[in-house]
Amino acid sequence: GSSAYELHRNDSFSKLSLEDIDYFKKILGEKSVIQDEDVLSTANVDWMRKYKGSSQLLLKPRNTNEVSKILKYCNSRYLAVVPQGGNTGLVGGSVPVFDEVIVSTSSMNNIIGFDNVSGILVCEAGCILEKLDSFLAEKGFMMPLDLGAKGSCQIGGNVSTNAGGLRFVRYGSLRGNVLGLEVVLPNGTIVDMLGTLRKDNTGYDLKQLFIGSEGSLGIITKVSILTPLRLSSINLAFLACNDYLSCQKLLLEAKTKLGEVLSAFEFLDCESMELVLSYLDGVRNPLPPSNFYVLIETTGSNESHDKEKLESFFLHSMERGILSDGVMAQDMNQASSFWQIREGIAEALMKAGAVYKYDLSLPIENLYKIVEEMRKRLGESAKVLGYGHLGDGNLHLNISTPVYDDTVFELIEPFVYEWTSKHRGSISAEHGLGLMKANEIHYSKSSEAVHLMASIKGLFDPNGIMNPYKFLPRSLLSQHKE
Ligand code: FAD
Ligand code: 2HG
Ligand code: ZN
Fold first, then answer.
1. Measured from the CB, is residue 167 less than 6 Å from ligand 2?
2. Ligand 2, residues 88, 147, 268: which to mutate, most atoms within 8 A of Cβ?
3. CB 154 within 8 A of CB 128
4. Where are any strands of DSSP class E within 194-279?
5. Atom number, ligand 2, closest to the C-alpha of residue 165
6. What digits encode the pLDDT tens for the residues 227-258?
7. What is the end-to-end Cα distance of the chain in Å, rounded?
8. Which residue's CA is the closest to the ligand 2 atom numbered 10?
9. Does the structure's ipTM exceed the value 0.90?
10. What is the average pLDDT score of the chain?
11. In order of start, what are the domains of the chain with their CATH numbers?
């Protein structure tokens, strides 16, 4: 690890006993109670291999009632719990810190229903995002979110992190698209909020508390989600800009000229491109080397109209000197090879060695300045990459070194958080707080707001068993057993 924090196990949590294991076997059956070392070593470590726990137990409930029995028991026994979906989270939230019991939703992967007039899908939390999208494709619909981890992340994990991703600019937040949830509280209570209505102003919208709550309040077991029609005409352009100012101008131009068909606006800098080219096999840059690259996707229903729009946008931007170069994908294969460059950056960073990952929301005019300042601070000691969801004002600042290095780390933090706070940005745009940023929330939220959050946490989870040490400052998390 790279971390500057010293963390101790909260000894008010019980240690797992043989009686506990017997109880779980009795309620779940032998097969869903996993103590196998290989399985556990995978479940104990996150996608980046940066955060590692030492849990001795993985439970795989098959339905809501089983989740309810598990949590009720863990709560009464003061056993700490980590909910785990696809384990693709990037802030250390999905793995145990010490010996917490891992509750995986992987065996809860049924589609419950789909209404092909309204486009409303109801499914279990463990459904894999890509599988849901394939299911919907057959019905002429699609998931309103898309991310590089789609092949393994689960809808329950997506909702729990309020994941953004590549189509956010078009379809918006899960806060708008999720219409209902079923959740299990730490005391075992099953809360049915699984509405399938677009409009419902009856009382507090409690499901919103669970969206983005990162497993801190309970376990999401079912999701109801509004899905858009899958439109037939998709076009993708891979473009080059000389400087960041041109990228900003291009965004305004894209909103103006492409308006209703714009479905993605992503960018990467030349350092990101170089890293992908050196670490991923079979990837090539379709353009001559440039300082910035922008991917623009349009999705609509009229092929010739959409193509014409994108082409005239392209020509106009070239004439104005905003664009220095560009290509349009000629077929699906070429389109996926362009996406592979953008979606492959996180994987290339993994192969390059150690990575310090920051996921910032910033006012668009300042968004790239932090990358430049970081380069000045770190000099030759690290590679600094800037890329992300420019259309949403979301920068992925990644710092890559051959191995973890405390001197580099101390040059990055707290500077990056202070800078973001000073520029009125968010220190977590879409990945969440997890273990990594639990103690940093104050950079983006007022003390009053954080205390209110801690009260909510205490109300839902008075024993503090849900995903301990994470999400909220550790000084505010309650001390469990009296
Ligand atoms: P996990 O990683 O298993 O869990 C994430 C958090 O949610 C943990 O705190 C966990 O305890 C909690 N949790 C999981 N399931 C439940 C549940 N049912 N009930 C309660 N709590 C639960 N994120 C983006 O926002 N945009 C991106 O573009 C994006 N791209 C990515 C690309 C790659 C290659 C990778 C590896 C990750 C990416 N991510 C992105 C990170 C993102 O958070 C996850 O991919 C995804 O949303 C997490 O889903 P998961 O099922 O893997 O959840
Ligand atoms: C993406 O948009 C993901 O590719 C990962 O959110 C970002 O690796 C990152 O920093
Ligand atoms: Zn992202």
1. no
2. 147
3. yes
4. 219-226, 233-241, 262-269
5. 2
6. 999 999 999 999 999 999 999 999 999 999 99
7. 33
8. 396
9. yes
10. 96
11. 18-104 (3.30.43.10), 111-226 (3.30.465.10), 233-343 (3.30.70.2190), 353-441 (3.30.70.2740)
